[in-house]
Amino acid sequence: LATLGLRAEDPARKWERRAALSPEAVNTLVAEGHEVLVERCAKRAIPASDYEEVGATLVDKLEASRCDVVVGVKEPVQSSLSSSTSSTDKPHAHLAFFHCHKGQSYNFSLLRTLLDSSKAAGTSFIDYELLTSPSKGSTVRSDPTIPTAPPPAAKRTIGFGSLAGYSGMADGLAQLGTKLLAAKGVPSPFLSLVRPLQAGRVEKIKLELERVGREVGEGKMAGMDGPLVITLSGRGKVGDGARKALDELGVRWVKADELASVAKSGDVKTIYACHLELADYLVSRDGKPFEREQYRKHPDQFESVFHTKIAPYSSVLLNGGFWAPGCPRLLTTAQLAELQSRSDNRLISIVDVSCDWEGGLEFVKAATTLDDPVVHPAHPTSTQLSSVEILPSAFPIDATEHFSRGLLPYVRYLLEDPALEKEGEDGKEIRDALRRATLVEDGKLTERHEWLYRLVEEAEGGGARCRVRPFFLFLFDSGPQKADLEAYRLVAGPAVRTLAERDILDVVVASNDLPAAQALAADYANVDSVHLDASDKAALSNLVASADVVLSLLPASLHVDVAKLCIEHGTSLVTASYTSPQMAQLNDEAKKANVVLLNELGLDPGIDHVTAMRLIEEARSTGNKISSFVSFCGGLPSPELSNGPLGYKFSWSPRGVLTAALNSATFRLGGRDVAIPSDKLLSQNFPHVPLLRGFAFEGVANRDSLAYLPEYGLPSDLPTILRGTLRYPGFALVVRCFRTLGLLSLEPFEAPIGRWDELVDACARRLGVEHTGERAVEAVLVDESDELVAETVQALSELALLPASRAVANLPPLPSSPLAPLDYLSILLAHQLRYHPGERDAVVLHHEVTTRSDEGKDELFTSTLVQYGDDKASAMATTVGVPIALGALLFLDGKIAQRGLVSPSSEEVWRPLLASFEKGGL
């Protein structure tokens, strides 16, 4: 009827001795009339003669062109895949673990070969890992290769998971014998435990485990200062397999809340084991009890307390749990380091079966091997690590028989005559499963895997294109006031430069000022420019529809409309603006559309989130309780320029700085909540903020600090949390006087003013003051000190806002239509306090986290960023433009698994961003 090819495994995989099908399965296929070709392989555990005896034909080299179906275990040798267009080649299916569907970078070359082979020979490539049977009542995600929360919605139907868990646990116990002798001087029964690799069969290991368990029960663990305690994570097939091995060892199962007790006073003749539930080591960042459904939806809102609740009482950890980007890590590098620094550290061995590099166990970077399975630490009392990723190969015959039973129904279906109607529920389920598991077909990635095109093209450095080049749309606009345009253009520069360094990207800069957009694009071959009026919804919609990612520096008021278009067209969005309530309401719609809305990715907010999360993690790694979080950030002129009006210059929109002075603020100091109304914000400032010895700063509270408790995973009862804005001394009080004068009013005048020095007079008349010039200022500020009034008059005079001012030359033209006082002031400040050639700005960002030990000892952790502008870009432009671009690239690289609203404080965002900041010029 049809021909099946059982190929040999890659000779470079020296420990790979499994086969995809057993002789028993081959016998079934031959009996049904199929031809089976078996490629000879000397290291295959099952002799070739066993296949020949049941009717298979042995071949020295398997020719795929003769086969309707080819099966193997791991990735094939790329040179063995057909790239011929010979008429003798016929379309066939090739099944294996290809390890391409998650965007694994080490297999981009193989994925390209699969595409080329499929195009030339019509091959369909089907991945075993994607053969699933949807759980009852569940739905398969539109892109299941990018998990948003554990566990996956669809259950795998074939695999080696249970054997991996069984083998991993047995091998870990065998390794434990040597470790106990080296670390504790204990010659335990585990020293004589045969490794799975040596035993070869499951039945032999079962007898060995039962023997060792009996000897432990007989008291042959002399010298142990406490019982052996084994913890196991993962409730899937890996966990089931590990649990089976421990049952054969004869362990006593305990719950997580019993670990401390048994570790302290348990019987050394008993081996204790705990199979962990997620609720045993995951807690909500807001202090609420663990809820599985909430964790499925928002895994980033949880954190692991394994290092404090479980690890201190565990001797061995086997990690078999599911992990995906966005999920909390079971154990971080810092947490493991802290555990190992303790004299009472019990955790002497970790066996990682999951093998998610830098995943659930952050410190696991690569695989170990069956012949050299353990990474031995320099100090014998430290924790040893094993991370073998082909554990089932230790039982090659058992693994083959187990896997073959699961695979056979799919192979039989593929070998049947396509003209025959395959009816019944079983046939439909198999057909649908094969369709879901198909990675490449007709020379193309199947729809659910099309996102991989981007990664392949990037890896090829702009070589042959798979489909289209990733297209980034960069929006910037002057907003309602042309005075803001230069600020947006300056920030756009570092962002465009960061994107353009990826020469496989196409970047389009869209602006209502085409010359400015053209100037940004001029130096880069892969950057183009277009004119765009952001109020033209049809034009904006067309551009958004054609982009993979939109980066927006439009005024914040326009971002919700842009986000709605992104959701409509399935395009993700990155901005540097705060997430507004209106934007937050789009979360569910964005998730349904598989769209990322990544906001707050500039300086403040943005870099502050990223660096805060890193510092908080460092503080938590001590095991002490965080008692305080204080953060200040500010964009300032470099110190030598600080003697001008307000002690300030503008590298960014003056309007944004001025409107911030109209906000209210909430924070907590020493357990007391403080709420400052907007009209008191500048009065109740912090006149002295001692961050760096060489700088003099004052501070102003910034918005609602308490909102960042859940954002940063801090306890709701944290005694102190404060986020503030830095300025040079004197800024707050003078700007407060500006507000008192009415210069920050958002209510437009009825008629335009005729001269700049009429602005103060016009504001004074609104307040019922008929004086003009300096006398008007004095009349309005009658309740202020003479010194402050004099400072205010001097600032107004230097800004050309008073008659006979010194600074009257080269003033900007006045708008012809009436504006609000704040908008007039913004236009003037953008001109008068702009940076001139040779002048530089600075950005200062400082965090302080305080922890307190059980003994009452405080420890301070600090993080400081000081960035200066240079001849390429201002510090403000770099610290806003670079993060927004890096965030967009993070999405392109497939590193953001979440959908909907995504925060920079999410671990899958902040950790890789922090690593890339320095390369980006920060």
From TrEMBL:
InterPro entries hit by this protein: AASS, AlaDH/PNT_N, AlaDH/PNT_NAD(H)-bd, NAD(P)-bd_dom_sf, Sacchrp_dh-like_C, Sacchrp_dh_NADP-bd
Domain annotation Alanine dehydrogenase/pyridine nucleotide transhydrogenase N-terminal: ranges: 5-141
Alphabetical keyword list: Amino-acid biosynthesis, Lysine biosynthesis, Multifunctional enzyme, Oxidoreductase
One BP term from GO: L-lysine catabolic process to acetyl-CoA via saccharopine
Recorded metabolic or biological pathway in which this protein acts: Amino-acid degradation; L-lysine degradation via saccharopine pathway; glutaryl-CoA from L-lysine: step 2/6; Amino-acid degradation; L-lysine degradation via saccharopine pathway; glutaryl-CoA from L-lysine: step 1/6
GO CC terms, sorted: cytoplasm
GO molecular function term, any single one: saccharopine dehydrogenase activity
Pfam families in the record: AlaDh_PNT_N, Sacchrp_dh_C, Sacchrp_dh_NADP
Domain Alanine dehydrogenase/pyridine nucleotide transhydrogenase NAD(H)-binding, residue spans: 209-386
Family: In the C-terminal section; belongs to the saccharopine dehydrogenase family.
Official protein name in the record: Uncharacterized protein
